């Protein structure tokens, strides 16, 4: 209890300090600011922004995006770590206060402490084009938070002016999760452009034709507690001989990484293909509460998703799930590994087209083009 009180006090002190410095910042600029915390999903959008804006692009990042930030620093962009106190007060806060467009891919507490000008647009692109887990004020941790902490969350959410979505479903989820009524940009999530690019699809289809194996990809979400529910030994030894199992651990999932060391024959990559490329090649995706199905359904609309959720009831209580997500009959939800193997070994035709109609309603391959047009119009106003 004492520890929680100290943490709450420190966070309040942090926001008060941010607020004080921001009030002293008066200079306007024409830079495009991106607050970055998800390297794997935001890199594609960042690359496209750089092609248009070059050194006007400013990257403000969390520690897990250090490698990507360094690449843009080498290209001449300003990059600043949110973990650096000196950068925070001398560079980051003034840049945020003076910006006309700020793009963020997550929840950033610093936004709650800045008194932005009326014309400043703060755009939430998020790090997924759908949601299985609850987030924002709908998340279980937020529901059980103190009133002071809830107020702090709201201070951040109410700064968001615009949100990019791939579906009306996701727009409604954002509104209820943030408890705001933002401007909804029906452009599609930026990364959906990659999966809808005709050149990319053609290239990966040619690769797929030369693979004589059924690709099974296990890609679970990250869990805060140290536990892995999958029995990789049983899974790898019981799938059919014409199948190839790939496992993609979350970058912070050290438990699954350790388990993989026991089974060196199980690959994490197919040749040199990254995760996005691998999704085009995957016949069956095994996951749980990860956002990867929303990308996979675009990469392979005829693919099959198996939701392996042995901790489903506990996860609902501890983290929280979108109320109706697992009510669909379009995909399999199982709680034991034997059922997973049985589904994989079936040779059934499937379709994720209805899934895409719900979650990728606005995705048309032009998300980034529309976003850049929106940025240009915003600067003209």
Automatic annotation (TrEMBL):
UniProt topology in membrane: Peripheral membrane protein
Cellular location(s): Cell membrane
Keyword Transferase found: yes
Primary location recorded for the protein, binned into one broad class: membrane
UniProt keyword terms in alphabetical order: Cell membrane, Membrane, Teichoic acid biosynthesis, Transferase
Pfam families: Glyphos_transf
Record PANTHER family: TEICHOIC ACID GLYCEROL-PHOSPHATE PRIMASE
Similarity comment: Belongs to the CDP-glycerol glycerophosphotransferase family.
Name of this protein: CDP-glycerol glycerophosphotransferase
Organism: Enterococcus innesii
Gene assigned in the entry: tagB
